[in-house]
Amino acid sequence: MPHDTAAIDALLPLPPATFHILVAVAKEDRHGYAIIQDVEQRTDGQLRLSAGTLYRSIQRMLEQGLLRETRDRPAPELDDERRRYYRITPFGEAVAIAEARRMSELVKMARAQGLVLSKA
Amino acid sequence: MRYYSALLHLFPASFRLEYGREMSAIQGARLREATDPSERLKLWVETTIDMIMNASRVHWDVFRQDLRYSLRTLARSPGFALTAILVTGLGIGANTAAFSVADFVLIRPLPYRDADQLVKIWEGPADNSGNGRNEVSPALFQDWKTNTRSFASMGAYYNKSVNLVGQGDPLRLETAVVTNELLPILGVQPLKGRMFGQSETGDASSVILSYSLWKSAFGGDESIVGRKLIIDGSPRAVVGVMPQDFHYPSRNVALWMPMTTQEMSDPDITNTYWYVLARLRPGVTHDRANAEMHGIATRLRQQHPAELEETGFAVDRLRDEFSRQSRLLLLALCGAAGCVLLIACANLANLLLARALVRRRELLVRSALGAGRERLVRQSVTESFVLAILGGVVGVGIAYVSLPLLTRLVPTTLPIAQSPTIDPKIIVFAGLLTLITGVGFGVLPAWRSSGKLDLGGLRDGARAGGGRREHARTALVIGEVMASVVLLISAGLLMRALLHLQDTDPGFRTANVLTLRTDLPSPKYDRTVRKAEFYDAVLSQVRAINGVSSAAYTTGLPMVMTGGIWKVVPEGQTPQPGTAASSRFVTPDYFKTMSIPLRSGRDVRDDDDMNKPLAAVVSESFVKEFLPGREPIGSRFNFNSLKLSIVGVVGDVKVRGVEQTSEPQVYMPYKQYPDSQGLFYSPKDLVIRSSLPAATLVPAIRQIVHRVDPEQPISNIKPLAEVRSDATAARSVQVRVLVAFAAIAFILAAIGIHGLLSFSVSSRQHEIGVRMALGAQREDIVRMIMGQAAILAAAGVIPGLLIAYAAGRSMQSLLAGVQPADAVTFIAAGALCVIMTLVGSLLPTMRAVRVDPATAFRADV
After folding, report:
1. Which of 61-120 (A) contact B at CB < 8 A?
2. How far is CA B491 from the centre of its chain?
3. Does B453 or B75 have the greater pLDDT score?
4. Is A33 on the interface with B (CB under 8 A)?
5. How far apart are CA B182 and CA B202, in angstroms?
6. Is position A107 within any domain?
7. How far is B30 from chain A (nearest CA, A)?
8. Region label for B308, one of left (φ > 0), alpha (ψ between -120 and 50) or beta (otherwise)
9. What is the Cα–Cα distance from B212 to B234, expressed in whole angstroms?
10. Which ipTM value was assigned to this complex?
11. Least CB–CB distance from A36: residue in B18, B26, B46
12. What pLDDT band is residue B238 in, cutting at 50, 70 and 90?
């Protein structure tokens, strides 16, 4: 689904927490605590989102249409009744892709100037 | 975990309800991971900081969201938004401007050291009744100074104009001639040089410059001290320069000169022309100083029964040195501004209540959809906040625009340089008041309608009236009508007083008369013969100008020179207390030029000189008071030791202005001016009656004066009409301001009536429809709505009239003879209120008449 590029650009650059949350829910629906754990694992424990930052970000992302709450529940044995699950929206995906592209452009530019070592 | 719940309360309730449980769960998991007490402590510290940061960001997000929503809803009802903003702006603006001026004049301390210890001492009536202030004679001053203990220091001064030559064009400057004590009493140090009396050789021919003269005439010359200036033809050495913000006794004094020994030792205790300033000794109260002065005045009356029989004293705080009238008018102004603010707040409250009723459905729908009470209340607060801020901006704009007008209310007698500026404290105060009003009346409805899920409200539709709130709104509108009646009548009474004063015959005709001043300097013109040569030369050439019908010189214009009061003793009588008249020396044609009618006898003549008996032309009131039943022409009297015989009688002139009672007048021929008199009473004001415009006349006169004496400056060029209107200028500004306030109140009250009726019509649409369906005629509907309007108006007008009468009585001294129950004013105000009611109810009535019964039924099905 094509998205209004102006709407996407208006959100860029994304706050780091927002980008990480989008990445965390990119492949599967997750609840809040699962997002925190996913981010922590993927960053090797470098980034540990606080509950406040997480839900403040989630609230804003819901308003911006990057996420939605989902009623589809995972298999009952994995489900936790008390928890809300979040799913990335197509718009959220488009924004995440745009942000990733933006960052890789930056890396490319830096590399062209010899500022980044290529992987050994 | 209880601590964590407390931290969660930092967040808005809606956020807490939504995510609180999950956040607590995550925190619980974290705590389980942290086993070590030091790790736990670290976790809690981090969590606390994190929660505070995030909570404030969430609040900010919500505020921004509400702000956007408010701006959108306000933009959707621009009528409401504009009215509310304008109403708030008028209230804030009127108050900010009025209270800024009042604070400036009445409250702020004067710019002198310990200014509350400074007092002015006057001659007053013997009974110390507090009314009437007269200048003090040097002899009396010396007596007070030697014999009082209450004052740390006492000084005196008088005002004088001098000519300064040698700095480009000749300059005419206002000067204060001061005793050595005067400047130190004020506790201000000179910027350069020194004060008087600090030199062993004496200061007889020295001068101190004001900062503005030093800058304007001498370009701020650093080596000014010691320089010689030519003032009134004789050299004076500059001994000092005063600082920039120093002004005493008034803003336009450019020089200070020392009193001469001769002036200080004048033994004549009735020669009153000094102003006395004193500083109370620390710890001495105003009352104690008064008591001491009382004793001294009593002794002085016994010592000088003939001269001081009627003389007492008066001690006034320097701060209070402007008329009680000015103070009363300023207070009236503040009262009016307060009224406007109250009306504005009432109106805002009314608007918000009406809107809350209209939006009741919206609020109910939103709360039914799950918006919590807290969100709805918060939304309302934000909206009121937006209205108050926008209103505040408009208000400050209004205050800025109106301040220059209000600045003219600052009495010129106050020695303050700057003009009043807008006081931020007052803006904040007025803003807070409207904010409280806005929030109070904006939030309550939201709170109530969201408190219980009253689905009846949804069913009611637009028919919902909300009886209790209707009562509150009715009371507010009645209050508005009442306040606007009070303001209308007060403004009306003052306007009548002003018209009355402007209509009062001053005793002379102002049309086509131009006035200007050539103040002749001493010692060049000390001798009367020398002065007469100047007048004769100037007048003969001025009269020769084509278009000039007559011209003459006088000691001082009426209403400008109000003093010069001398004692009168008719021949063959013993001196009586309180017999005085105002004195003037004039050239021939003065009465003709001013159109003062000659009743009998003759004008003064060119040949009334020192070789003839001293002549006088007196006013009709002089004859009535001093020579009742006698033939005035040829009668003789003593006038301040001059023996005069009356040659003519002229009409009376209101020398002290139209508001005061004036003494009888005595005019003496210019060639009989006593050489010993000094220059104070010498003719200096030239009056010219001509058909020429000032633009052609003034250059011609300038040339003439320059030809006669190239060193003689000209000043105070003014049409006589302006001299006359200046006398009531402050009053007319005040009346204009008050009328503006009354107009604002009037419009606000009309808006109030309109709003209430509109709402009542739209909520009674159904009822009106039913009535019409049942056969009610349009006239019945009109009668119903107009009846409601009439009851509203009457309920406000009747108590308003009573309060207005009370207000009128309290400012009776400002009314110049107009009665506080002035019928014309009351009838006019009543008529205006009828118009206000009609205008306010016009649109709602029309809407009611156009109700279509069928639609009214259908609307809510």
Report:
1. 63, 82-84
2. 15
3. B75
4. yes
5. 16
6. yes
7. 10
8. alpha
9. 22
10. 0.84
11. B26
12. very high
**Closest-CA residue in chain B for A82?**
B22
Any residues with CB less than 8 A from the CB of A65 and at least 6 apart, and which? A89, A91, A92
Total domains in the fold of chain A: 1
Residue B688 is inside which H or E element, if any? strand B685-690
Q: Which structural domain range is residue A101 located in? A: 5-112
Domain membership of residue A118 (yes or no) is: no
- Residue A75 maps to a domain: yes
**Chain B residue with Cα closest to A63:** B65
Collect all residues of chain A within an 8 Å Cβ-Cβ radius of residue B51.
Answer: 52
Output the pLDDT for position A95. 93
pLDDT(B454) > 50:
no
B27: nearest Cα among B56, B6, B53: B6
Q: How many CA atoms lie within 13 A of B243 on its CB side?
A: 11
Q: Which amino acid is at B113?
A: R
CATH number for the domain spanning A57: value is: 1.10.10.10
Is A53 within 8 Å of B50 when comparing Cβ atoms?
yes
Phi, psi of B725 (to 5 degrees): -75, -25
Query: Is B225:B208 a contact under the CB 8 Å cutoff?
Result: no
A85: nearest CA partner in chain B = B22
Residue written as tokens 């004049």? B105
Would residue B786 be called left, alpha or beta, if left means φ above 0 and alpha means ψ between -120 and 50 degrees? Answer: alpha
What is the C-alpha separation between B490 and B804, in angstroms, rounded?
7
Torsion of CA B327, B332, B335, B337, to 10 degrees: -100
- Flag whether the pTM goes above 0.95: no
For residue B618, which phi and psi values (nearest 5 degrees)?
Answer: -120, 165
Per the domain annotation, does A119 fall within a domain? no
CA distance readout (Å), B563 to B359, B580, B643, B656: 68, 11, 21, 8
What is d(CA B401, CA B393) in angstroms, rounded to the nearest whole number? 13
Distance from CA of B20 to the nearest CA of A (A): 9
